[in-house]
């Protein structure tokens, strides 16, 4: 190491910070250092010497990497080391370059549940003799019973970047709540990160768990698609909010003069008129004055401005807020960086491309900017002397040419409603109807019977019905044996019925989803866990009504969505397909009984 060269500082990525913590505590042994990389050419990269990773598998060795910017790498090689700091600038460790060996300086000293982040030595000393159980998601009812049978246990919440199904804080909270219900359970948090290599990551995880457990047994949880334990379900529901409850960033991009700022302002007015959300506007000129004062209009500074806007917007979304931004944002890389920041914060990113053509933007040119750019008075002007990279991932594309603002805004409003994030469409006179989606397997037997019978029983009540199948046949008529069960009940409409497959749009449309079987419910939740509070089996929904006799409509849905019974297979409606007319009638009678109870609760106007 040079005696004169200053050791540069560098703040690693969240994944690298997790790896650093495990390296510092010895949890990754026999790996004791990083594989140092940078954005320099591959031929000048240097592998960590064998002494640093003596017995580690090559794949595992390369997983634990530290990527340094070229400038930092050059300074580190001159100084012989780089100092790694946390986002607040606290020095955590010194890493020798190029070997990658880690010399800890201190450890992270803040953060939720920090007292549960034990080193392997601390954990073994405190919890010797227990069974160690790795946890990456909230425990289900069946998994809790599995753990209960193990005796004294340590639930190891693997909270590293990209590993848990929930956010790290939610995973630890859910695990702690479950631990309180067990006779002798402790919780340890381990920041084991994912590195986009499932096989190598699994091997690394096995090694880390063995380091923590020492001579004690490690037991994996059984795969289970059942309901979460009640203590954990509430945490899951909060951590995976439904789309219309997520933090949201509405990002308008387009050429100068395209109408993006005008559309953004009109959208904000409509949101405020509805009165259900508060908004933070991060408009270009306002941000320039207050957040980005001192930045020039060079390409580098303009992109810095966008990233600052993105960071603030992401923080707003982290806390469930709604941010509206309307910069030109001409480069895809920067837009993707903002999207990543928002999604990392747990928010939703909705991209509006205002695709008004350059000729129309230049014709408008109220500020004379295009004319100045044509004369060379404004360098690097987007659309003239600097490119605009057309988004390929826009959620909606709007051309304002020859259109009124309300007309163009309608495209955005409709796309937002279809996405499920925000419904600003004008409601019809009176209360907006409830929307119920029935689901079975093929959408030719049970769910069409549910749809048609529910419509018959509900009469003129403010409620709409649809049906679909998890493996729905395309455009098939209703099963003949099930149609026979409709006539004695006075139910009509099966002639016009045609089956359809379940889609995300159908799920987003529905206020409540009622399935024939628990298997259908789990099929939905596997791909759409955020819909946890609105997907029930029909039998489960009816059982969950107990204690809510004074509630109806949306208030009832909110109550049973928060407190529900288990979706037990005992409550399923048996599949009558190809089982004869008696099976069809049994299924019909079972469904009718459940529908009468469900509809009487949802709306007092429904026939009981």
From TrEMBL:
Fetch the InterPro entries from UniProt.
AAA+_ATPase, APS, APS_kinase_dom, P-loop_NTPase, Ptyr_pPase, Ptyr_pPase_sf, Sulf_AdTrans/APS_kinase
Q: Which GO terms describe its molecular function?
A: adenylylsulfate kinase activity; ATP binding; sulfate adenylyltransferase (ATP) activity
> What pathway annotation does it carry?
Sulfur metabolism; hydrogen sulfide biosynthesis; sulfite from sulfate
* One biological process term in Gene Ontology: sulfate assimilation, phosphoadenylyl sulfate reduction by phosphoadenylyl-sulfate reductase (thioredoxin)
Q: Does the keyword field hold Plastid?
A: no
Domain (Phosphotyrosine protein phosphatase I): residue spans on this chain: 434-605
> Which Gene3D superfamilies does this entry report, sorted A to Z?
3.40.50.2300, P-loop containing nucleotide triphosphate hydrolases (3.40.50.300), Sulfate adenylyltransferase (3.10.400.10)
Q: Which Gene Ontology CC terms are recorded?
A: cytoplasm
Keyword list, A-Z: ATP-binding, Nucleotide-binding, Transferase
Q: Where is the AAA+ ATPase domain?
A: 246-469
Report the EC code(s) recorded for this entry. Answer: 2.7.1.25
Question: Does Plastid show up as a keyword for this record?
Answer: no
The enzyme's main class, written as a single word, is transferase
NCBIfam families cross-referenced by the UniProt entry = apsK, PRK03846.1
- State what protein this is by name: adenylyl-sulfate kinase
Source organism per UniProt: freshwater metagenome
């Amino acid at each position: 190491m040079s005696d004169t060269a200053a050791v540069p500082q560098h703040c690693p990525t969240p994944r690298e910070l997790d790896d650093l913590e495990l390296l510092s505590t010895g949890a990754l042994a026999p790996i004791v250092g990083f594989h140092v990389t940078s954005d320099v050419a591959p031929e000048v990269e240097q592998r960590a010497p064998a002494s640093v990773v003596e017995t580690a598998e090559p794949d595992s060795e390369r997983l634990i990497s530290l990527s340094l910017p070229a400038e930092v790498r050059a300074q580190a090689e001159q100084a012989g080391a780089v100092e790694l700091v946390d986002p607040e600038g606290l020095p955590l460790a010194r890493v020798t370059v190029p070997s990658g060996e880690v010399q800890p300086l201190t450890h992270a000293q803040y953060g939720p549940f920090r007292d549960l982040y034990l080193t392997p030595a601390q954990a073994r000393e405190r919890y010797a003799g227990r069974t160690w159980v790795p946890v990456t998601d909230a425990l289900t009812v069946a998994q809790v019973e599995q753990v209960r049978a193990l005796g004294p246990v340590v639930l190891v919440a693997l909270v590293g970047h990209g590993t848990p199904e929930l956010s790290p804080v939610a995973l630890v909270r859910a695990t702690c709540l479950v631990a309180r219900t067990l006779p002798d359970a402790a919780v340890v948090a381990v920041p084991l990160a994912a590195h986009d290599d499932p096989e190598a990551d699994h091997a690394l995880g096995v090694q880390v768990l063995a380091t923590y457990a020492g001579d004690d047994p490690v037991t994996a949880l059984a795969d289970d698609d059942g309901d979460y334990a009640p203590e954990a379900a509430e945490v899951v529901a909060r951590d995976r909010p439904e789309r219309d409850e997520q933090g949201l960033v509405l990002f308008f991009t387009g050429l100068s003069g395209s109408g993006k700022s005008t559309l953004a302002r009109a959208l904000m007015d409509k949101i405020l008129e509805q009165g259900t959300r508060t908004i933070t506007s991060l408009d270009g000129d306002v941000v320039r004055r207050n957040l980005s004062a001192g930045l020039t209009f060079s390409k580098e500074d303009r992109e810095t401005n966008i990233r600052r806007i993105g960071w603030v917007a992401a923080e707003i979304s982290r806390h469930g807020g709604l941010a509206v931004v309307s910069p030109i944002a001409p480069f895809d890389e920067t837009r993707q960086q903002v999207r990543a920041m928002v999604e990392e914060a747990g928010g939703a990113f909705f991209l509006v491309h205002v695709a008004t053509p350059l000729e129309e933007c230049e014709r408008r040119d109220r500020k004379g900017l295009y004319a100045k750019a044509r004369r060379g008075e404004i360098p690097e002007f987007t659309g003239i002397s600097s490119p605009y990279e057309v988004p390929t991932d826009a959620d909606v594309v709007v051309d304002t040419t020859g259109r009124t603002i309300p007309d163009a805004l309608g495209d955005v409003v409709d796309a937002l409603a279809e996405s499920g994030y925000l419904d600003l469409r004008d409601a019809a006179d009176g209360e907006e109807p409830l929307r119920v989606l029935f689901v079975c397997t093929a959408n030719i037997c049970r769910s069409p019977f549910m749809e048609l019978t529910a419509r018959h029983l509900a009469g003129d009540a403010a409620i709409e019905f649809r049906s679909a199948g998890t493996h729905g046949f395309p455009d098939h008529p209703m099963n003949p044996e099930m149609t026979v069960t409709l006539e004695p009940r006075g139910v009509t409409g099966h002639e016009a019925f045609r089956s359809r497959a379940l889609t995300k749009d159908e799920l987003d449309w529905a206020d409540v989803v009622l399935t024939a079987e628990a298997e259908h419910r789990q099929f939905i939740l596997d791909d759409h866990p955020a819909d946890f509070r609105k997907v029930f089996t029909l039998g489960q929904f009816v059982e969950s009504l107990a204690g809510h006799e004074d509630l109806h409509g949306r208030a009832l849905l909110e109550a049973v969505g928060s407190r529900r019974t288990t979706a037990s297979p005992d409550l399923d409606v048996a599949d009558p397909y190809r089982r004869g007319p008696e099976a069809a009638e049994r299924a019909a009678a079972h469904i009718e009984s459940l529908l009468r109870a469900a509809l009487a609760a949802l709306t007092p106007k429904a026939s009981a």
